[in-house]
Amino acid sequence: MDIDLILRNSGALFDGAKITLAITFVGAVIAIVGGSAICAMRISSVGALRVFARAYILFFRVTPEVILIFWAYYCIPLIFATTVSGFWSGTVVLGLIGAAYLAEIFRAGIQAVPQGQKEAAEALGLRAFPKWSFVILPQALKLVIAPLVNYFSEFLKNTTLLSAIGVMDLTLQAYLLGGQTYQYITFLSAIAIIYFAMIFPVTLYARHLEARLSNRSTRPTSWRGFGFRRRSTQDIVSKA
Amino acid sequence: MIDYDFLRSLDFTVAWTYLPALLSGLLTNILLTGIGFFCGGIVVGTLLALANLSSRRIIRWPALGFVEFWRSTPLLVQAIWVHFAVPSLTGIATTPFESASIALIFNVAAYCSEIIRGGILGVGKGQFEAAKALGMRAFATWHKVILPQAIRLMLPPLVGTTISIFKATAILSVLAINDLLRAASRLSTFTFQPVEIYTTAALLAFVVGLCISVLGYLAERALKKRGAYGH
């Protein structure tokens, strides 16, 4: 591997890495907002919304991402008679796919909050807003954080797909540099290492969070809250 | 905002005309999914899982490094890398399909080895010890005690992985394999009707993905009925 060649072209690779991170952040925002909305529909009491959310989740989970990205890139400009950049069409599609996954992650978190918590909130006469924002969601959020971080390591991998529609991300930059210098292996190996350096820490962090959560939940807490000490949310979650 | 005149002008007969080309592309995707699942997931994945479970560090650590590296890099990069690196490292020129298969097999193997390892570890040490205490030989221990329980644990994540493999095969079209996406993009430049072609392609892919998830659901239910779930 020719380190010198990589260093000489590090500017272009850095530009590519910036685009990759931009896709990740914008896509993450869309995925979190969209995922929350789809999750709310999925657990709503309105049947039509539930059916829509289930169909949405099913469709985006089983259809290949690249085909959807190509569809959006070539079809949306025609259907809406506008121009859309590859960056925006691709990022929005990745965000919508992410929303389907995150909706399921959020739902699993909410359902893992014991039913008694909901009943207790209702027994205390809490209305919908305080019940959700002070009782259920804070507990659900703790359970959701590890799979959420884990999903973003997947998301970071999916950003490479945008290079197929000409977004100048890290992969496409490396591929073009490889074409210019006929040193494909050098540049492709370099970005493989860069991707690994970006994704692996995220995976490790997700595992760390997961381990911490499962350690807490195995801790014997049944007798610790005895008496009048106010029990923390974590103790309540861990009894689930 | 929506261009209704354009929507009215859509003519899906073009998709019907070229359906055979799209279907033959789809068949390539299904074939690659099968290669990925059986060669990668089951064969190489099991070997990697066993290497990861080995008590010898010299076997365990390289296997661990391999799994972590293939799991933490994007398949697109892996596929292009394999396509350029294998010919120059080994001197054997691979066709795009072969390069894609190699990348897919290793990628899937890395993911599946974790599932298989998790399934085997999930069975619990007590089961091994109980089998040993009963005087069962290695084959009987694995065949009668460990695997039936491990498969029960592995099946749900394996179904999810199979859907992921199918979705991943579409990525491999960057290597110029005649898969669904490549067929669709060639047809759309040829017919100038991208909306009809890409919509049909997306729907076809969705149907296959749906079939895989339904099959997985049926397999899980069948396993439950056969009593593999321990009751």
TrEMBL record, chain A:
Name this polypeptide is given: Amino acid ABC transporter permease
SUPFAM superfamilies, per the entry: MetI-like
Is Transmembrane a UniProt keyword of this protein? yes
**How is the protein disposed in the membrane?**
Multi-pass membrane protein
Listed GO CC annotations: ATP-binding cassette (ABC) transporter complex
Question: What residues does the ABC transmembrane type-1 domain cover?
Answer: 17-206
Q: Supply one GO molecular-function term.
A: transmembrane transporter activity
Q: TM segments?
A: 20-43, 55-73, 79-102, 184-206
Which species is listed as the source?
Mesorhizobium denitrificans
Tell me where it resides: Cell inner membrane; Cell membrane
One GO BP: amino acid transport
